[in-house]
Amino acid sequence: MIHINLFEKVGAFAENKDIARSLRLEQIIPALEKNQAVVLDFEHVDAATQSFVHALISDLIRKYGREILDKISFKSCNEKVQKIIMIVSEYMQEGE
Amino acid sequence: MYLPGFPVMLTKYQIPGNIEIYLRNYIKMKIYLPNSAFIGNINPFLKGLDFSDPTRLQITANENWITIHPVVLSLIASLGLLVESGEIDCVTMKAKSAHYLERMGLFRILGIKSGLTITEHESAGRFIPLTQIKNSNELTSFINDMIPLLHLQPAQVDPIRYVISELVRNVIEHAGSKNGAIISAQYYQKSNRISIGIVDTGVGIKKTINQSHLALTDIEAVRLALIPGITGTTKREGGTEYNAGAGLFFIKAIATVNHDFFMIYSGNALYKLLKSGSGKLFADPFSDKYSFEEKLPFFQGTAVGIDISLDDTKEFSSLLELIREVYFKTVRERKKARYKKPNFI
User: What CATH number does the domain containing B108 carry?
Assistant: First the structure.
């Protein structure tokens, strides 16, 4: 299992999608390829943009299918962050 | 006309003896600052813009009073950045309120002297002066450093930084503007609202959208850009790994549910979300209460203005729930529209 602390990477407002993409390509995908579970820890992240979350997870759903959500856990998300993650995961699955 | 390597507009004349001469054209880009230009009454200001020669700029202003929305300020600064400082002809402003332009950094960004002196004890208010943002890291720093200048309550910060992040990222990623995005913002105590203006002089929305969709007019391009899930980067549902085509829809949604003004001016089109709408979210911006113009002076770029009321700002998480419902329904309907129809004979 790998654990990624988002606050350490992006601060309290997760909006820098370049960082989101780097995390996906350099940490999340390699872990999933090794069949490891991934914990995305949003503790102390106050808000996130849809663009950030899209850059972080949309291609995972497209590439590996919706089942990949079984291997990714979103930890300590507040209500706003949870809703953004729900929006992105829903439109990616509905658009499959 | 322009001659290669000669950056000012020239007019060709033929004089006796069949000799052709080129004289510098005294046509200039012209901006007149009226006594009032906010989103609600911005149309006359936009109609009065003259983009004749993008290498020279003349700025004149109402002599008595000038109050303008940050989108107007950002637009002037964006146009001014296309021009060498020496080619900007700005009248010395007489209106007392012209000090506002100095405080917002207009003359600094244009590289010209205003001729105005700031009264020492004049209140600076709560504002974000004109700022140029060219890349992702500058944007992140801007959000961290500048938003505190507005002295907002934590709950009020959410829509403001969301709007700024998504709009400026749109510019950085899609506009192809060598000057990046120009942003400014102002808090108005009397109406308890924040107004934000973000402008670029890039390729414009029509060119961006037409990379993947068909928009014959600027207003159709603006409409498509506001529909969730439509991006210039791909026709594919869900967008690319980097773009979903949802940023502008989210921003329009913030304005819609709070009954605030929102506008986009690109090419010769203006789309304006009116504040008197029902507050209900629609995927298609033409279903909202709106107005539009499509014969404005052609602006090579995109100007976005928004007002955000702080009195009754809807809880951001409630807003996200509404967005989620509309977004999901829209994707599902688009998917259904692509279904093969059974062939009944």
Answer: 3.30.565.10
Range of the domain at B332: 25-112+125-337
Residue-wise pLDDT tens for chain A (96 aa)?
Answer: 999 999 999 999 999 999 999 999 999 999 999 999 999 999 999 999 999 999 999 999 999 999 999 999 999 999 999 999 999 999 999 876
> Does residue B332 belong to the interface with chain A, where contact is any CB pair within 8 Å?
yes
Query: ipTM beyond 0.85?
Result: yes
In whole angstroms, how large is the CA radius of gyration of chain A?
A: 12
Find out whether B64 and B95 touch, Cβ atoms under 8 Å. yes
Chain B contacts of A90, Cβ < 8 Å? 324, 327-328, 331
- Cβ neighbours of B327 in A, within 8 Å: 87, 90-91
> Within an 8 Å CB–CB cutoff, is residue B244 touching chain A?
yes
Q: Does residue B242 belong to the interface with chain A, where contact is any CB pair within 8 Å?
A: yes
Domain that holds residue A68: 2-94
Split into its structural domains, chain B has a count of 1
Name the residue among B41, B46, B52 with its Cα closest to residue B8: B52
Q: Pick from A18, A59, A91: which is nearest to B229 by CB?
A: A91
In a domain, B343, yes or no: no
Q: How many domains does chain A have?
A: 1
- Please indicate, yes or no, if residue B76 is contained in any of the structural domains: yes
